[in-house]
Write a structure and sequence with these properties.
The structure is a homotetramer.
Chain A (H helix, E strand, L loop, with lengths): L4 E2 L4 E5 L6 E7 L9 H11 L17 E4 L1 E2 L2 E2 L4 E6 L21 H8 L15 H16 L4 E9 L2 E2 L18 H17 L5 E8 L13 H10 L4 E6 L10 H4 L3 E2 L2 E2 L7 E2 L2 E2 L4 E7 L9 E4 L5 E4 L10 H27 L8
Antiparallel strand pairs in A: 1-2, 2-3, 3-7, 4-7, 5-6, 8-9, 8-10, 10-16, 11-16, 12-13, 14-15, 17-18
């Protein structure tokens, strides 16, 4: 495969560039008979869409969901869902100035080396816009997970060096940065606005919690649940790291501290982050991802042009000064897709319809 | 697939349990005509094998490499290499005491919930022993990479809270913990020995540097080079996190700091860790993985038995008090496999024999 | 995967039902830098479209090609091509009468048993309309093959018991049934018109010849070139069999007759059909497929309704009385896709950019 | 992948050459908890092994089954089964004479063009010996199918132009050619012995019947059940064609004849061969494969050497004059593997543990 598909039994294939006519996704392997209305998907799209607040890009993509196949009388048929999102606010000419420059932090340089040809209008497939299809597909997966009592929630844990001190679940969707601490959220927003005014940007950390996954989900060896989640998260453009449970802090812990002991009530701690040997323990699955600062900034930066000659670049455009708030629904979407895929693989392993052996 | 295969055009499939008769690997997609001698593979196996020093398990597995197919007169034929490593020091009876207990930090509990059946002798597929086949396959990939000037080296960066302060490349293979700082190495070894004496264990951080990868390797969107490396690393039992370049530190950086600017000499920094948009930049690829403390410790721990009744467990056995030194060649092996696979996919994309368009 | 994707390095994923809003395809793994104009693809679509002559269905689908991504300034970029074909002549209400009946020869009964739910308007994914996306993708593959001198041509060999006696290559696209014998073509057309008048249908045999494939294409063991071609052809709805070279006639031949001997000029015969051990010999690749009679006929037939009660059905609609003429471009398209995929896999095997060993 | 793996949820990967040390298979995705004894697998191996009668090669491979992983206390654990079959009767020196010649009908020429290097001892991966691993894996799949009441039986239908006139199921395993007509079997054996005496060989047709498959198995579009069976069968070296149900005869039938009508008792005929739209109907699945004459014959044939100079070759060795009797268990094995894989995919589609929607 050439890299635009993800998943095995619940499989998504995306297409589209940021400044083309549309982006979208084919979702193959959808459980048939699922009641699915467009409003449910649209709700997730709206969480991702630009222009939600002062801290996101003013680019307006209404991201209106169109389902062109795979649904009949409000229910999935089991055949591929095709979801398309027409691009409504393309301004490719805005990119004329940078046609011959490599933008620092962007994939311009690497795409040209990979393909020998480059569409310079926006970031093409490397654009955050590509994730719109993922969020649409993720909504379908989320709907399936709801039926088995699984819930997924990601939120901002840290932005620009400001850390959340509390975990107030109900506050997350109420503030513009989707932080779990409303006090920290206010400081984060101030910080972002200040940086935006200077033409700079900042990064952050997003945490994700998944509840209700029954023990036994995940395949040993290469397709461990955490390995597949790691791949899913690192496949999101701005993500530079991931850690599960105690994560990097485990490096300084003793075995006697890190091991999650058990008694008849269950696990006494969750340093493992809900996954042992690549398989879910039934505890909350917890991971954090490192989000880099937005690459597009208007401060002048050194770069070269296609001929390798020194140039100065200042990326004027409509960009989020911090990606965290809008990456939250993308992280949730990818987590939903990984989980449904692994639930389906677990069903295949036991293939109850074939044999009932145990 | 059921999780025991990895890679697409250079593909490995492993089999075997820690206390069965053998472990091994089928390597499919090997470039034909490669000169390959067993000693070259054996050298990598010897770096992974137990019993190398006071800080590794005294279990003796000679890990003698047997190649049963895919080679003819010292050269690869392009057909699947099959490499088998017979287990020479199985003591399954050593596990009789824990037949009905879940060892904390191990996959006993999750395997039973996944499969409904469990082989209690050792950790089965979740054992570090499974990685022997990966190291053998990785040696083949490494040989291919040598031909294009790519080198891979991993080393211990931190153990038990003790951090390396210097980077002395030549010292790495000279100390028992494979640390890049010989002074820190002495302290690490003392720490490990002290913990081992108390029946405890510790974790650490391993860093990997890959040099000589030309720009353009990696597939956009889901099969990004960093996404595939992340999956590969998280598929190793004890790994709980990964970060590329500046990694989690990027969360507190500004865009103007994190962006790697360029001039006509090349990149001015490498916060990206050698990968932009999922594709290699030509700079050094750098990532770090978090290694958890060894789960098997002899200190008493709380657990339950198969009936859910509270029990105390003390894992007596032959285990590494710190996995870092022996995980180094496994990390290198997986990195080699990911890279060869992506080099091959790049060749497929341009398919020079089919067309020459650019 | 759930069955809507085909290929590995050149990979197509289709979506869409016959009476939904659109059908289409994502083509991933396209060689970058390929000059590709819409007219080239449209030409192949027009060969497949209905309403071409008296022997094809009067349903009018203009099948106008829209490419929404993967192309820039007339050249492929290497990112996924997305091609959509809006359905322009849906009449789902025409299917109201058969909402509760299983049409003989159709997949109505099996879809309901598979999914537990059925979209009764037309044949959904089992409709020949699904192949429109394949033909579009196949045109891209064909363009790539042209660059290496490979040509593919399929044609009708037999219809309704009338066999071609000659092979006149230039006549194929000149007659309405795409037969290689213009005299037989006249009889075939008469036969089809007569059957159509009676409300019946007929089958036939289509042969495909591929020239210019260099020796060495195809993977041994499971992904043999003939195995992948067989899968590709049997994945087309109406195909019930395939044979290569001498095919079923080989069953009655001696080894001394069937073996293709060689001398310094090359092969002395081509009973193998251009493939030995699953790998191309450099000779013409020749295979034939059996095409069943169109299932939709207006003659009354016995069937049951959803409750299992006996019913009589007469399928009134707009259907081809013989599928052969319109299946020809679908067979060519799938052959092109298989070949490009295998050319790319051969490039990956030798990965010239990585090593040059031989 | 490089071609040595088959299947998705029940996946086999084979290795080994005819004159190397061993052949074998990793079977991944085995349902856990299955009672599996070696004798059950050995029984299938014995049906495939050489030296069973006067009509098979005298080469003696005891094909003793060794399972090195994936089984514990007589039950499968769900982790990969590894089955190895050591080669016991290699005589690579017997091939010295042909080191520099291309044997007609063999893959010598194509392997050299593909890989640029060739192991001339026997046929390497193209040897029928590679199928030993398939038969071992197929026995595991067969055991799983038994639990759901599915039975698979292949048998010789025609050899050397002699056709079976009756279908006597109980006679199949009683005659040396596994023909379904004992009278025809006697003539077939005479014919084979006569040809063997002259140094020639012959082909035949093998039919396979699968009973008890419930309706709904198979994926629409590309992974149709018949498409996957076709690929599986064409992946067997000597197979040159396949047809389902009425097969090639459908080309001369009318729609009114070919359509399988229904009444409340079920289907009134089975021209479809048990598959409609790529999905099982619940009727018997029936297909036939064309088997070419054995390529190795001792009659002199024209060929060229590595330098392209004309030569005469006479393949002296231990070969079956007709492959049909020994291909029967290979065909059954591949059919079992395809079916279990599709049963598992059907389980994944409905993922009962996740949701129960219908």
């Amino acid at each position: 495969m050439a890299g635009s598909s993800f998943g095995e039994q619940f499989k998504i294939t995306t297409f589209g560039e940021s400044h083309g006519e549309a982006v979208g996704v084919i979702v193959d392997g959808v459980t048939p008979g699922l009641e699915l209305d467009i409003a449910y998907i649209q709700k997730q799209m709206d969480r991702r869409k630009p222009g939600q607040s002062s801290v996101t890009t003013p680019r307006k993509e209404y991201d209106k969901v169109h389902i062109l196949s795979g649904i009949f009388e409000g229910k999935t048929t089991g055949t591929p869902l095709f979801i398309i999102l027409y691009n409504s606010d393309m301004r490719p000419s805005a990119y004329d100035d940078i046609e011959k420059l490599f933008r620092p932090g962007h994939a311009d340089y690497t795409y040209l080396h990979k393909y020998g040809i480059r569409d310079h209008r926006g970031s093409g497939r490397a654009s955050g816009r590509e994730t719109a299809g993922r969020v649409a597909a993720g909504a379908v997966a989320r709907k399936l997970l709801e039926h088995s009592g699984v819930s997924i929630a990601a939120y901002t844990k840290e932005i620009g060096g400001i850390k959340c001190e509390t975990y107030a679940e109900d506050e997350i969707e109420k503030n513009a940065v989707r932080a779990c601490d409303p006090v920290a959220a206010v400081k984060m927003i101030e910080k972002i606005e200040e940086l935006a005014a200077r033409g700079d940007s900042c990064g952050g950390i997003v945490e994700c919690r998944i509840r209700g996954v029954r023990p036994g989900i995940g395949e040993p060896v290469f397709d461990k649940l955490d390995a597949d989640l790691a791949k899913a998260m690192l496949s999101i453009g701005a993500v530079k790291g991931i850690e599960f449970g105690a994560g990097f802090a485990a490096a300084a812990m003793l075995g006697s501290e890190h091991n999650d002991q058990m008694n008849q009530e269950g696990f006494l701690s969750n340093n493992a982050g809900g996954i042992l040997g690549g398989i879910s323990t039934g505890e909350e699955i917890v991971f954090r991802v490192a989000v880099k600062p937005t690459s597009s900034i208007s401060l002048p930066q050194q770069t070269v042009n296609l001929e390798g000659v020194d140039q100065t670049i200042s990326t004027v455009g409509r960009h989020d000064p911090c990606i965290c708030p809008r990456i939250v629904p993308v992280i949730e979407a990818m987590a939903c897709i990984v989980l449904v895929d692994h639930y389906k693989r677990q069903a295949a392993m036991h293939d109850q319809r074939l044999v009932d052996l145990l």
